[in-house]
Write a structure and sequence with these properties.
By secondary structure, the chain is of the alpha/beta class. 44% of the residues lie in helices and 14% in strands. Helix 15 links the parallel strand 10 and strand 11. Helix 5 (101-116) runs parallel beside helix 6 (136-148) and helix 9 (209-239) packs across helix 11. Bound molecules: uridine-5'-diphosphate-glucuronic acid.
């Protein structure tokens, strides 16, 4: 009988930790390995290194059950493992390609572990990180084989198993996947990888590693393109007096289109779409088959935050000494992740024009100010409430659809702002309600709805 799986999960960030918790939930023992000793210590102490609903509680539960442990020691992490799940980062390199340094180092360490195993102890390496098609069967295989002196598919297993987790609902997504994609280098590798997902009722796609890797990029590129399509069409609709959201609802009834990912806004951000689109378009160009639609989706996305600046400039007649309130600093609600947040671009643009920016987000602490200073050399003031942000503002920009912002009271803006102007970057407010309360409203895909009775200064 096959040994019960013992999975070493390399990389304890978002994907690694969430995956380990989902596997542990279904009875599999997981050992997290991370070179960052502070992260390991936090996890051992029951503190998740990021904000994600349910993760903290699940971590405490599985530390207690003993199904999840964490270590910074490579030999301790690999001892007795049946599977190694590679969940390390694949950051962008200077030229937009993928920096595979971490993947390579882990593959070598897996090879060294296989080399040191005397007999038996079959190990299957599973690449979960998002990697350019061909990486598992090329670089990863090559590194493990050269460090171990053994052959993939004969002496050890190798598979690609991309993840489709969304930030903010990651644990739920990991526990209820809508498909399991496994690309094995051979049958046994795929069988071994799938053994970890026996509990799942989701459709299984069994394929080769390169196809599995391509599935991940095709999914993200398609979704990002859908968002950019919505944004571009929404800008046009606003120009000709049409509400994009009515259009989106109507076309969304066509199940060939679907309503999801048609919400127009100030653009997509996060650790995945922008990075993955850059990586795959760079790889496709290098392969002589450019992905022009994905490229255009990126370009549209780069311009979309400027819609906000354009309207502020037009409405205020300039940015010098203006105070802009940003509601929502993360790239989306439910997370503290500010990577590629459109709020960074909006803040940088208005600050460049001479404005000061104050902001509030229910989950984000100092990471936004740090990122803004680092990437744009710009200063920013974080406040603790919506009211403080709105106080004395010349424009209030809603950048995420967090519940706290959906319930923004127009009277708060009217009473506290210097200039009653709201820019709804995610279409979460009722334009008429704001106009009736004497607030000028602008929304993505609908344009300007003027305050009833003409513009008034609060
Ligand atoms: C995305 C994918 O949805 C996941 O399936 C994938 O696993 C993940 O990337 C990844 O590659 O790891 P995530 O980046 O967490 O997940 O966030 P999404 O919910 O997909 O949103 C991405 C961006 O698109 C956000 O900035 C969001 O505000 C924006 N968006 C989304 C819109 O502007 N409009 C929409 O209708 C939907």
């Amino acid at each position: 009988m096959a040994r019960a799986p013992l999975v070493t999960v390399v990389g304890s960030s978002f994907v690694g930790l969430t995956t380990a918790l989902a596997l542990a939930h279904h009875g599999t023992r997981c050992r997290l390995l991370d070179t960052d000793a502070a992260k390991v210590e936090a996890i051992q102490g029951g503190r998740a290194p990021f904000e994600e609903p349910g993760v903290q509680a699940a971590l405490k539960r599985h530390l207690k059950s003993g199904r999840v442990t964490a270590t910074a020691s490579i030999p301790d992490a690999y001892r007795g493992a049946t599977h190694v799940m590679i969940c390390v980062g694949t950051p962008p390199a200077w030229d937009g390609s993928q920096d595979l340094r971490f993947i390579k180092a882990v593959a070598r360490s897996v090879g060294e572990e296989i080399h040191g195993r005397m007999r038996g102890g079959y190990l299957t390496a599973i690449v979960k990180s998002t990697v350019i098609p061909g990486t598992t069967a090329g670089l990863v295989r090559g590194e493990i084989e050269s460090a171990s002196g053994r052959r993939a598919g004969r002496d050890f297993g190798l598979a690609a198993n991309p993840e489709f987790l969304r930030e903010g609902t990651a644990l739920h997504d990991a526990l209820h996947p809508d498909r399991v994609v496994v690309g094995g280098i051979d049958k046994r590798s795929a069988d071994e990888a799938l053994r970890l997902f026996r509990w799942s009722k989701a459709p299984v796609v069994r394929t080769d590693p390169t196809t599995a890797e391509a599935v991940k990029y095709a999914a993200n590129a398609f979704l990002a393109t859908k968002v950019s399509f919505a944004n571009e069409f929404a800008n046009y609709c606003a120009e000709v007096g049409v509400d994009w959201y009515t259009v989106a609802d109507a076309i969304g009834h066509d199940d060939r289109i679907g309503r999801k990912f048609l919400n127009a806004g100030v653009g997509f951000g996060g650790s995945c779409f922008p990075k993955d689109l850059k990586a795959i378009t760079t790889a496709a160009r290098a392969a002589g088959r450019p992905l022009e639609i994905a490229q255009a989706a990126l370009e549209v996305n780069g311009r979309q935050p400027s819609e906000v600046t354009r309207v502020i400039l037009r409405e205020l007649g300039g940015l010098e000494r203006k105070r802009i309130a940003l509601l929502g600093l993360a790239f989306k609600p439910g997370t503290d992740d500010v990577r590629e947040s459109r709020a960074l671009l909006i803040a940088a643009e208005v600050i460049e024009g001479g404005a000061e920016v104050v902001g509030f987000d229910p989950l984000v602490k100092d990471q936004f100010a740090r990122a803004l200073a680092l990437q744009h050399r710009a200063n920013f003031t974080r406040v603790e409430t919506i009211e403080e942000a709105v106080e004395g503002a010349d424009a209030v920009v809603v950048q995420t659809e967090a519940d706290a912002f959906r319930s923004l009271d127009p009277r708060t803006v009217k009473r506290r702002a210097r200039h009653a102007l709201v820019l709804d970057g995610r279409r979460v407010l009722d334009p008429q309600r704001f106009a009736r309360a004497g607030v000028d409203y602008w929304g993505v895909g609908v344009g300007m709805v003027r305050a009833a009775g003409g513009r008034k200064r609060a």
